[in-house]
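#help-structures
NK: newbie question, is this the right format to request a structure? protein is GntR family transcriptional regulator
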Amino acid sequence: MGRPTYQRIADTLRKRIITGDYGPGERLPSRQALASEFGVGPRVAADAVQQLVAEGYVVARTGSGTYVRAKPPVRRLTRSWYRESRGGSPFQADMAAQAMRGGWEATSETVPAPEAIADRLATETGTEVMRTRYTFTGDGEPVMLSTSYEPLDITRGTAVVLPEDGPHAGRGVVERMREIGQRIVHAAEIVTARPASDDEADRLRLGRGTVVMVIQRTYYTQDHPVETANIVVPTDRYELAYMIPVDQG
């Protein structure tokens, strides 16, 4: 079965927006004009426009019409795990470098490790881990999400068991782990892209189906992984810059 007619119309309008036929802030043709152009009823045309509203491409203004959403400026997130050894929050440092106020909200709870997380932490499925869900903000607006997992076999009973509570709250993973004798020597990241889930779209204030980058990051000591996280970043707002040290021998 083919795609519904309203989705095919939405595909055409979306392509026009992406290629610049409809520029930021420009008003889309009325539902009646679209219905006439595509040979459909006004209801089908309205459904096509609503699809673009849901995806975040356009915004509807009551009594005025529907307008192409202006693209926010693309900002940079620096991926350089070794910067965490400098103290403080690397995320706040990135935001400050762009004259933005960085902050976050976080909640932690003990959960059994799902199979995929257990594999990344080189432990058994169901092993207890501390899961912390973050919403990072810049000037009060959501910037990215992160869900981190730390093995309680390593952190239980220590001052860093809760990443956002205690004497080392708000510090980077490298600094926190150093406090309990876990010296991180390298990190690995895998970057993919996919549509945001409904929960992610709500937390990041995105349209349904907006594409996001997903970074699977894992920190390692010489002997074992000590933290892994899934980081979700909107592709239309941020670019990733990787800073990689080079050993000159």
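mod (FA): yep, format's fine, and the tokens are attached above. The chain is about 25% helix and 35% strand.
NK: thank you!
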